[in-house]
């Protein structure tokens, strides 16, 4: 079924899920095995709970579910709210908020809006491959910039290049932060871990394109995987490649395994690296986060590599909640930066 043959035209009686605002369900040979559920959303802005350790108060997620198929994705469990499973369904049943830009404009125009920082890329990648069809991001970027709202984007998708002129223009009037997610440069391991994502080379080229456009580009090297990607040699190769691509900063953090992602990742580990499975079960026996001593060890190792490649010359960028932060207890992963997103 071709996209062009199915323009929006009311509720689809063949829709498979009882989703609020569902307009139609679409399958296409261009995305084999994937079903898109197109909905008309009622809201675009999501408030981050006050108790969260995240440094921003608002997020936007144009989609639910993600085509990147990252085995470790901690947002997987959110699909259970739709009566879908956090494994294969998260990778193949994608909810698309087709009217999100117009809804966002209305929300940003409210007198109560305080122009707080808004983060994109927290539960699904806004530049996954389907964005080439839906083109939701240009409208979102324009709405945020025209309203005077600062924003950040985290992505693995080189499709962001398409919108670089819009981001450069937006940065003239609001604070714009762009980050690329890349935690390893071994293409073979990367494709086994993240089979739907662009290659490390493609993401390094994206970092360079962003910096060449005049924007700073930070990198989230998350998650670092115990015994798989945490050796001195692997981290040195990663940081060297990022420095060469022009990254302004790198934030690294250890894998954490929330329910939903935990079962999916450990099943993958059992297939791909069965000898490591008992070690991971012991390491993560205490919960979702790696133990404090491992996080401290990893922080010291990445700190050395950071300094070696010049990333210690400027403080990492952080977004402050506004207008007033809510004091909270230190998160379980206090010895490492919070994992800001699933990518």
UniProtKB/TrEMBL annotation:
Residue span of region Disordered: 312-331
Annotated keywords: Iron, Iron-sulfur, Lyase, Metal-binding
InterPro entries reported in the protein's UniProt record: Elp3/MiaA/NifB-like_rSAM, MJ0683-like, rSAM, rSAM_sf
GO terms of molecular function: iron-sulfur cluster binding; lyase activity; metal ion binding
Highest taxon of the lineage: Bacteria
Family matches, as CDD domains: Radical_SAM (cd01335)
Domain Radical SAM core: 52-301
Name used for this protein in its record: DNA repair photolyase
């Amino acid at each position: 079924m071709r996209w062009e043959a199915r323009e929006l035209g009311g509720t689809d009686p063949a829709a498979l899920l009882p989703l609020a605002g569902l307009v139609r369900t679409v399958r296409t040979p261009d995305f084999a095995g994937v079903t898109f559920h197109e909905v008309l959303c009622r809201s675009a802005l999501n408030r981050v709970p006050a108790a969260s350790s995240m440094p921003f108060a608002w997020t936007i997620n144009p989609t639910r579910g993600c085509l990147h198929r990252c085995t470790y994705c901690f947002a997987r469990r959110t699909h259970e709210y739709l009566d879908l499973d956090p494994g294969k369904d998260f990778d193949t049943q994608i909810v698309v908020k087709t009217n999100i830009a117009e809804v966002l404009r209305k929300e940003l125009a409210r007198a109560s809006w305080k122009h707080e920082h808004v983060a994109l890329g927290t539960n699904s990648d806004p530049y996954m491959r389907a964005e080439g069809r839906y083109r939701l991001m240009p409208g979102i970027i324009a709405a945020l910039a025209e309203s005077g709202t600062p924003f950040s984007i985290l992505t693995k998708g080189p499709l962001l290049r398409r919108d670089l002129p819009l981001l450069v223009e937006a940065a003239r009037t609001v604070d714009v932060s762009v980050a690329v997610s890349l935690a390893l440069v071994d293409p073979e391991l990367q494709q086994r871990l993240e089979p739907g994502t662009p290659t490390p080379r493609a993401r390094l080229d994206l970092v360079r394109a962003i910096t060449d456009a005049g924007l700073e580009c930070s990198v989230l090297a998350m998650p670092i995987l115990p015994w798989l990607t945490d050796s001195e040699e692997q981290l040195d190769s990663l940081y060297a490649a990022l420095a060469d691509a022009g990254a302004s900063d790198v934030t690294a953090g250890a894998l954490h395994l929330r329910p939903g992602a935990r079962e999916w990742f450990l099943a993958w580990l059992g297939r791909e690296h069965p000898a490591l499975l008992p070690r991971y079960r012991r390491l993560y026996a205490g919960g979702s986060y790696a133990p404090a001593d491992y996080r401290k060890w990893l922080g010291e190792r990445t700190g050395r590599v950071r300094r070696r490649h010049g990333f210690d010359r400027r403080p990492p960028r952080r977004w402050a909640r506004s207008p007033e932060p809510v004091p909270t207890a230190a998160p379980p992963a206090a010895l490492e930066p919070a994992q800001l997103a699933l990518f």
